[in-house]
Structures are given as C-alpha cells and as structure tokens.
Amino acid sequence: RLYLPTRCCLMGSPLRRLCRMEAAVVRCLPGEPKLTISFCLQGSHKHMLRDQDEPLGKVLARISNGIAKNQSKAKKSKKNRGQEQPDEAAEPTVVKLFYDGEEVPETVLNAEAWQDGSVLQVGDVKYSVQRNAPTFTTAELPVSLLAGFPVCPKLEVEFGNVQDCEFTWFRENCPHTRSEAPGKASDQDSGWTQVGCERVYIPSNQDISFRLKLSCTPKDGSRGGLAKELVSVGAVEAGPGVCLFDNRHAFTAKVTDWPTVRVVSYNILADIYAQTDLSKTVLYPYCAPYALQLDYRQNLIKKELAGYNCDIICLQEVDKGVYVDSLTPALDAFGLNGVFKVKEKQHEGLATFYRRSKFRLLSSHDIMLSEALSSDPMHAELLEKVSANGALKNKILQRSTSLQVLLLTIKVCVANTHLYWHPKGGNVRLVQMGVALKHLSHVISEVAPGAPLVFCGDFNSTPNAGNSRIVPTHADWSSSGPEESCSMELLSDIPPLLSACGLPAYTNYVRGFQGCLDYIFIQPDCMQVEQVIPLPSLEEVTTYEALPSVAHPSDHIALVCDLRWNP
Questions:
Q1: Are residues 141 and 122 in the same domain?
Q2: DSSP secondary structure letter of residue 295
Q3: 37: how many CB neighbours lie within 10 A of its CB?
Q4: pLDDT tens-digit map of 124-141
Q5: Whose CB has fewer CB within 10 Å in the chain, the N or C terminal residue?
Q6: What is the CATH classification number for the domain harbouring 214?
Q7: Are residues 142 and 97 in the same domain?
C-alpha cells in the first residue's frame, strides 16, 4: 500500500491518477449546526466549516472560487517577474458531487448531500467522500525521547478504535540540529528510514541524535481515515543506563496466565512535590536536578510499569496531567484501562489501571475519607468518638485523603489509597483506616458479596501500625501529643488482611528516612501469593546515596507480586 502524507498530496500528477482515490473526510453529526469537509487541494490541506442546512451549491462554488483566486495570484506573481504569458480566459474549475453515479443537485442541503461513498470531483481529480470516518482528535508525541525507553504517542480517535490503527515509525537520515524548527521535517532533509510498525517504539542507541517520525492511520476495523504525520520536537537522547528496576523485570518478562494476577502498588512522586525548593534543597539534595524533571522521570516510570507486565496497577501521587498525557496513552498501548481519582483542592491523586483482557470495570465507589466520616451515617459511631477531641476532629476533617474503590469482573474489589503523610499523624491515619475498612466492608456486602479484596497504597505507616483491630492503648493514638490524644477501639468486619509482599525493610528510602510505608493487603482465604518480585538490594538503592536518583524516578519503590485466586 502506498501512503501519501497529507501535506503533499501530489494533486493532478500521473502518480496521483494511478493511486487509489484520495479521501474527502466529512464530519456531520445530528444536532450540530455545522459540518466539516477536509481534503487536499493543490498541495495544501483544506478544512471547511459549513452550515448543515446550507445548499450544496454554495460549498461547490466556494471550492471553485478558491481555485480561481489561487490561479489569479499565481498569474500576478509571474507578471511581476516578467514571465506573464498573453492573457487567456481561464475557465472556472468544474466542482461537482456524485452519488451512485448520479450528480447530486446543488439545491440539496449539505447534511443530506455529503453521503458516505459519494464522489467529489474537482477538475480532473476525484475524491472518495468518507462521512464520519475514523479521525484523530488528538495525536502527539512525547517531548522527551530516551534510547531504550518506550515512546508512546498520545492518541484519541473519533469514529474509530486506537487498537485498530496502523503505525509506521521512521528515523531521520541525518542528525537533528537544534536550529531547525521543532516538530517539523525540514524541506531539505535527507529523508527518513522506516524503523518500526507497532504502536509503541523503543529507540535504540542507533537512534540517538536523530528525530523520529510517526505516520499513523486512524481505523475502525478495516475502515480507515486520513493518515497523520507526527515529527518529534527533538532528537532521541542517551538513556541513563541501568535503572533500579531493570533486574526486577527479569521476574516479570511475561503476562501471567489466569487465575494468577500480577499486582503493583507504587507512589510515583507527584511533580508538584518534586519541584519545590524544599524537595531540591532539603528532601532530595543528592538527586541531580535534571533527574527530578518531569519529562525525565516520566520516561523511567513508563518503562518500569510496562516491564512489570501487570494486571492491576495502583498508583499514588499521580499528577492529573501525567495521568491524561502520559500514563493513560502508555498503559493503554500495553493493554490496560485506567481510572483516576483526584484529591479535592489538589492537582494529584490516585490512579488504578487494570488489564482489559482479564477484567472489566463494573462500578466505582470512591470516597473522600473526611467527607464520608462527617456525612455518612454508617460512620456516626466513629464520628461521635472522634468528636470527643475537637482538635483531632478538626485535623481529620481538613484532610483531603481519598479512597479509590473499583469492582472488576470476576467480582474482585480493588482499593487504592494514600493516607495522611505527617510523621506525627498516626492517630489521623488510624481513623482514616477505620473509615476505609468500614466503607470497603459495606461495598463488598451490598454490591458484590463474597468478592475478595485487594487493598493497595501508601499507608504512611510502619508495620507495627496494625490493620484489623486497633486497641485503645495503641501508641499511635497519642502520636501528635496530649492535645490531640484519644483512646478508642477500632474493629473491622473484614477478616485480618495479609501483607502480600511481607514486611520489607524499606519501600521508601530518602536521606532522612528509610522504612516500610507501602503495602498490598489481601485476604489469604481468597487468594495466595505465588511470587513476590524482590526489591532492589541496599547496595543498588544507595548507588546514588538515596531515592529518587538518575536511575529511579521516585522516593518510593514499587511493590510487585503475583496472586493466585483460590477456586
């Protein structure tokens, strides 16, 4: 098949007449006042916005007049250069629309005239009209490209399916110089060499210093639309070499077979926290500044997550823009759908992804823990106990901590949270956990009785915090001093949960703290742990003193395990 870029249509050339008919794409939806008509004319792309109730003849006349104006401009240009030939009366270009071999009357309204399969004739050139054809509404390449790291375009298709689209990747034949206009191929470039034909391309070291180009065709099954060309803003750069997660990928080379499911829980460090002066000078002064930049860290995060071949991914501290522009396109390309829960009054939140070949989303039951505590009658008893200490109650109700809850097919309940962060906030976290477990128990009993629970997150709690029964003498009740101290018992209707990855020495490793804060909790009577992916060794973690580093994008380490559903 011959692919012709939309920016050079070869109109009217012998090659054009030998090729399949070019497309004129029409977007026309009921209830909308306008329709659009897009096609290539005399080497340039035309995009016309017209009223649906306008007579066809007005559009055809507009196209013909546009050609006449261009011809007049060309003649004036030649005359100014002294190349003008004797005046000849230029005949107007014939523009007609045909359907089933019959000319469509010019009085027919646009909405009815532009039918799928009709033929637009402009002079001696004919176009096949595609009404509501698959069309890219979004098509972008990431800004930062690193050798050895997957390049995942951000794509959104109207009237089509991203999974059906066709992709061809090219590498520029000559190294890119920064003086060239970003994102555009040079008119005097030396061409491009095809290097791939999948949705995701992983640049090699041979691609370093060269730009990439993607030609992608939107499709819906076998029905295709107009191809689009994307050229990278900059050239591929060298990657960081060995990353902290590379050795772990040796244990996750393949997707698991059902009934085994691979689960990840990972705090990926929100950009709004990585870029503060506090982060750069106090929390992570040992980390190279460029390694804290979002574009750099996104490359590492996408490669790490892709290499785990997971079925369920629970992420914390996910910037809204990162979810939309980076994680969703990347993980969608690797077979996962995602759901995002932003924190109230924040720009980051929780994201849970699931493999669509194994799961389907049945329902979501997200809550903000403080809001649920203050307004849901099921938490009235707990609220009454907390209200005995006004200072503690106010602190709890000011928190925007959320709980993300998904019910997936095969009736599994997946929960994801990121509890209050303060080192002296143990009492707040106990109450938050009490609200979370009560809510999860209610969702499972009311919506999916018997569904097993997988509860992931950054709980900001060391292993001695407990998770099923909290006694009144628990040390965390007085974690923030006597003014906010309280004493109560918390019981859960959910049977005791098991930490699937055990109790590692650390899941968070920074200069001032090393400890286990992250967990994947499961119900051991419903599932068993088949494999825990080993965490990086202390020697690996401290190669660059602590985390994050040039070899690892976060101050947390991902927990990864394989769980087998019991029949």
A1: no
A2: H
A3: 22
A4: 999 999 999 999 999 999
A5: C
A6: 2.60.40.2700
A7: no
Say if strands 34-41 and 135-140 run parallel, antiparallel, or are unpaired. unpaired
Tokens of residue 361, six digits? 């989303």
Are 501 and 520 spatial neighbours (Cβ–Cβ below 8 Å)? yes
Task: Tell whether 513 and 540 lie within a shared domain.
Answer: yes
Contact indicator for 401, 432 with CB cutoff of 8 Å: yes
CA angle 12, 16, 22 (to 5 degrees): 100
Co-location of 126 and 214 in the same domain: no
184 occurs within a structural domain = no
Q: Indicate if 452 and 522 belong to the same structural domain.
A: yes
Looking at residue 77, what is its pLDDT?
65
CATH number of the domain bearing residue 105: 3.10.20
Catalytic residues: 458
From residue 555, how far is each of 297, 409, 539 by CA, in Å?
A: 12, 33, 16
- Rounded CA-CA distance 566/517 in Å is 28
Examine the domain organization and report whether 145 and 277 are in the same domain. Answer: no
Q: Which domain holds residue 158?
A: 135-176+191-231
Do 200 and 292 have their domain in common? no
Q: How many CB atoms lie under 10 A from the CB of residue 398?
A: 9
pLDDT tens for 517-549 read: 999 999 999 999 999 999 999 999 999 999 999
Nearest to 149 by CA among 232, 231, 239: 239
Residue 7 has pLDDT above 50, yes or no: no
Cα 313 from chain centroid? Answer: 13
- In this structure, what DSSP letter does residue 91 have? P
Return the amino acid letter for 18.
L
What are 477-521's pLDDT values in tens digits? Answer: 988 888 888 889 898 899 999 999 999 999 999 999 999 999 999
Is residue 1 a part of any domain in this protein?
no
Closest CA to 406 of 348, 454, 345: 454
Q: Which of 151, 143, 155, 190 lies closest to 169, judged by CA? A: 151
Cβ-Cβ contacts under 8 Å for 406 (sequence gap 6 or more): 339, 352, 354, 361, 363, 364, 365, 413, 414, 415, 416
Q: CA 348, CA 402: separation in Å to the nearest integer?
A: 11
